[in-house]
Amino acid sequence: MDTPINPWSSQQTEDIEKLFSLFGIEHISTVAGILPRVPSFIARGVVVGHRDYGQIAEAIRDGRPFHVLTGFMPSGHPHLGHLMVMKEVVWHVEQGGSGYITIADREAHAVREIPWQRCEEFGREYLQCLYALGYRGRTYFQSRNNVLKDLAFEAATKVNFSELRAIYGFSDETDLAHAESVITQVADILYPQVESSPAPTIVPVGIDQDPHIRLTRGIAHKLRMFTVEERDGYISVRSKNAPAEALAEVHRMFPGSRKYEGHVDIPRAGCREVSTLVRKVEIAHGGYGFYTPSATYHRFMPGLQGGKMSSSIPESIITFFEPDDVVRKKVMGAFTGGRATLAEQKELGGQPDRCPLFLLNLFHMVEDDAELAEIHRRCREGEMMCGQCKKETAERVLAFIRDFREKMEAAAHLVKVE
Ligand code: TRP
Questions:
Q1: Got the DSSP string for 286-342?
Q2: Cβ–Cβ < 8 Å for 300, 12
Q3: Which of 16, 101, 124, 166 gives the lowest tally of CB atoms within 10 Å of its CB?
Q4: From the CA of 182, how far away is ligand 1's center (Å)?
C-alpha cells in the first residue's frame, strides 16, 4: 500500500502543496472570502485545502441548510491530535449545519482488530470530548446503524475491486472486511442526506482521508438519476438511469424545453434553479438526489517528538486522562525548533514554524492572535529560549486539560451508544 495518500499509514505526508495539485484539491483561500466570518482554524492556516467548499460557504452566508459530518476510529484514546476536526464540526454546527458524528467501530475492528467492547469504550470517550467542546447533533456507531449498512450495500453496487486497488493499493491479500469498512465510510458521508434530506455536506478531515472523499464523491454522482450541466445558452438534463416517466416530468416542468432520447434541454434557465427542481423529481421517483459532498483538509499537528501524532507512539501524544507530571514531562521533553547551541539560538533566533510546541500553541493553546504573534516574535528574535517556552506551554496545556476534563465530566450524560 504505497499510494501517495494512504489513510492507514503512520507516516505523515509532507509536501501538502504537491499533493493538492496532484489530486485536484483547492487551496482554502479560493472560497474563504465567501464566509461572513473566517474562523481561526482557517485564518491560522490549519485548514488549508478543500473540495467544493464553495457550496458550504454559500449555504452559511445565505442561511440555507447543510450537513456536517465526520468520523472517528475508536482504536485508542482520543488525544490532542483529534481536537482540530472536532472544533471544525462544532463551528459548522454553530453556523447552522446539522451535525453528524460516526464512530467507525467497523473500521477499528476490521483494520486495527480492536475488540467490539473496546471500540465502545473508546467511542464513548470521543463523544464525550465532542460534547465537552459544545457539539450538538446526532451520533452513531457504524455497527449499530442499519440504515447506514443498507446504504453501504447500495453504494457497493457502484465500486469494483480494480477501483479499490487503484485508490487504496488493495491487493489480492486484502481481506473483505477492510473493503467493507471503506464502503461503510462512503455510506457515512452520504448518510445525513438519507437520514434527513439532501443538502450540501461538509466533511472536515485530515488530508489522509482524501481517498475516501474522492471515492464517495464519485459514488454520490453515480447514484444520481440525472446530471445537470450548463451548456452554451441552455441547461442540459441528462438521464443516467432515470425511469422514462421521471424524464418526461422534467420536460413538463420547463415550458419551452426540448426532450430527446435520454435528455432534456432547457433554454434560458438558471443552473441552480434547474438542479433544485430536477432533484425533487428524482426524489419523487425513488432516487437519492445527492449533493456531491464537500471536504476540508487540515494540517496535522506534529507529534511532540517531531514525527506524527499517533496513539501507537505514546510520547508523541497527550491524552486527556494523563496525570499532570506525565503531561509536564512530555512537554518538557518535546522536540522544538531550537538551534544546536544556546549562543546560536540567541544569535539566529528559533524556528517556530517548524516547532511542534509552537504549533501546539497555534492549534489549541493560545486563542488570542496578538499573544500568539508575540510568542512567535520572541522565539524568532532569539529573545525567548526553548526552556522558558516549554515551561509556559506546559502550564497552558495543564490548564487546558484540567478545564477540558471538567467539561468532559459535565457532558458525560449526553453520550449515547447507539
Ligand atoms: N476513517 C476515519 C479515520 O481513520 C474515520 C471515519 C469513518 C470517517 N467514517 C468517516 C471520517 C466519515 C470522516 C467521515 O479516522
A1: T---PPPPEEEEEPPPBPTTSSB--TTSGGG--BTT--HHHHHHHHHT---S--SSH
A2: yes
A3: 166
A4: 9
Q: How far is the CA of 71 from the centre of ligand 1 (A)?
A: 4
CA angle 197, 59, 193 (to 5 degrees): 20
pLDDT digits (tens), the chain, 418 positions: 344 555 555 444 456 777 888 889 999 999 999 999 999 999 998 999 999 999 999 999 999 999 999 999 999 999 999 999 999 999 999 999 999 999 999 999 999 999 999 999 999 999 999 999 999 999 999 999 999 999 999 999 999 999 999 999 999 999 999 999 999 999 999 999 999 999 999 999 998 999 999 999 999 999 999 999 999 999 999 999 999 999 999 999 999 999 999 999 999 999 999 999 999 999 999 999 999 999 999 988 889 998 888 888 999 999 999 999 999 999 999 999 999 999 999 999 999 988 999 999 999 999 999 999 999 999 999 999 999 999 999 999 999 999 999 999 999 999 999 9
Q: Cα(250) to centroid of ligand 1, in Å?
A: 37
Asked whether the beta carbons of 204 and 289 are under 8 A apart, the reply is no
CB-CB neighbours of 96 under 10 Å: 14
